[in-house]
Amino acid sequence: MWKTKIAKSSLMILLMVTTAMAGCIGSDDDSTSSTDNCSGDELKIAYEIKEDLTDTDLSNPQQIADYLCDKLDMDVSLYDVGSSGIAMEALRFGNADIAINIDGGPAWVGWNAYELDVMAADTKSDGRAYYDAHAWVKADSEMATAHLDNDDSTDPFSLLAGKTSCHTGWLKSAGMLMPMGYMIGNGYVTVQGDMSDTETLRTTINNYFDGSTGAGNPASIPESGALYSGYSGAVECLSTGYGDVAFAKDSTVASYCANEDTTLNQAWCLDMTQYVALPKFGSSPSHSVMYNSDVLAADKVTLIQDALVAMKDDTNGLEILNNVLGTDAMIVTDAETHLGTYGAALQNIPGISSKYGNAFTNG
């Protein structure tokens, strides 16, 4: 029986055009906590389940609230949000105290636009709190040939024009923001439209990666849960021949197609020798745990950080990390350390580059 109940929020907020705009948002929170089991200071966690976790039978995230209730002696509840963008708004206006599992894009905007901070981040299987973003192509493609021919005059990225791209989803870090930011910034892709409007990015992608002009397919920018969505979907999109290039993490292909237990490999996988990663676009931060320093006191931040880091040393805690957050450990960090270099790519993205645009209206 859960010790706390999930808060159902009707918060429907868009990112503001400028932080200079006045006003505030009242809470429509109908959160309740099981006071028989949880007591102490209130702690609300904004949470959105990610679709890119490899465990298809994810445990209820309520376990995180229950765990922290036990460890912190706080009255913990989940504040259910529909997107990471809304989670940033919840922190901004004090409707939540922390937000867990926040992707790099909204984390960077929250930091730059609203001065939100990072208290912790999850780690990858090799202990890194970041991953490299790559374009994956098939070994028999002209892009792979240009990359592997040891000839500096052949540029694999210049050959992507008119090919069909496979993105993990709308405004996802490795699946869209990092590759498009790199290619726009380095002159491969010309922005088609208003730089203050994030929908310009969709137009730009559809224009540049329109493989249908060459008897192929239009770019794949799937909605969450749709065909070819998430990291597995992007690689499936490439593997089945729908697309010519998949944008994903350095570890993505192996996680679906090179498991020691081959029964865990996806049915659509090709032999690993058939996949080639082009040079990395850059490094993207892992998912963040964020907070508003104007709302959450420093002593509470330290207590929460200690509890999150200690989860890896606790059997129950490690199980929650694995099953809910898809990680083996959390580390203490801050926004400058975790997100600082990420902006080099994001600043080229329409809407996000202005920091106060409609970056998360449709995502």
Keywords:
alpha/beta; disordered C terminus; seven-stranded mixed β-sheet; 30% helix; five-stranded mixed β-sheet; single chain; D-Maltodextrin-Binding Protein, domain 2
List the topology elements:
Blueprint: E1 6-8, E2 42-47, H1 62-72, E3 75-80, H2 84-92, E4 98-102, H3 104-114, E5 117-122, E6 130-138, H4 142-148, E7 165-166, H5 173-185, H6 199-208, H7 230-239, E8 245-249, H8 252-257, E9 275-277, E10 282-285, E11 288-291, H9 298-310, H10 315-325, E12 330-332, H11 335-339, H12 343-346
Parallel strand pairs: 1-3, 2-3, 2-4, 7-8
Antiparallel strand pairs: 4-11, 5-11, 5-12, 6-8, 6-9, 6-10
Helix pairs in contact: 2-3
Compute the number of strand runs.
Answer: 12
CATH class of the largest domain: Alpha Beta
C-alpha end-to-end distance: 33 Å
The number of helical elements comes to 12
Number of domains: 2
CATH topology of the largest domain: D-Maltodextrin-Binding Protein, domain 2
* Helicity, as a percent range: 25-40%
- Overall pLDDT metric: 85
What gyration radius follows from the Cα positions, in whole Å?
21 Å
The CATH architecture classification of the largest domain is 3-Layer(aba) Sandwich
Low-confidence stretches: 1-36, 52-57, 353-363
CATH superfamily of the largest domain: Periplasmic binding protein-like II
The biggest beta sheet, please? 7 strands, mixed
Topology order in helix (H) and strand (E) letters: EEHEHEHEEHEHHHEHEEEHHEHH
Q: Which structural category do the helix and sheet elements fall into?
A: alpha/beta
Bin the strand percentage: 15-25%
* Overall body shape: globular
Main sheet: strand order? 1-3-2-4-11-5-12
